[in-house]
Design brief:
Layout lengths: L21 H4 L16 H9 L22 H10 L3 H23 L7
Length: 115
């Protein structure tokens, strides 16, 4: 497994930090932006269609919790099981930018902010 480094390109569309994900670090995943086979992800599809780097740039839903693609039953269950707060990740991206978010997540060694 490789070291966790800050890289803004490893911030997923939904705000998770791929650079600290076990699958990415173990070489099993390319990360959100490079994983073209992740057609199942509605957030990824939406962001690529809108040509934005993350939900933090979405003007249609300034609060990602209002977006049904971001905040659906599957994502709520995922958040509950993994104690993940993707909306907090998006809020952090809005505050710090992608680079600041990547740096913060790399320093914490975390792929998500916890609830």
């Amino acid at each position: 497994m490789s070291d966790i480094k800050a890289n803004a390109e490893l911030v997923a569309y939904c705000g998770l930090y791929c650079g600290a994900c076990k699958s990415y670090l173990g070489g099993k995943c390319l990360g959100c932006h490079e994983n073209a086979s992740a057609t199942w992800c509605k957030v990824r599809s939406c962001c690529t269609e809108k040509q934005i780097k993350s939900c933090a740039e979405c003007v249609e839903f300034p609060d990602p919790k209002a977006c049904k693609k971001f905040n659906n039953i599957v994502s709520r269950l995922f958040g509950l099981v993994f104690k993940s707060d993707r909306a907090a990740c998006i809020a952090q991206i809005k505050r710090l930018g992608l680079e600041g978010h990547a740096k913060s997540m790399a320093e914490m060694g975390a792929h998500t902010l916890k609830r």
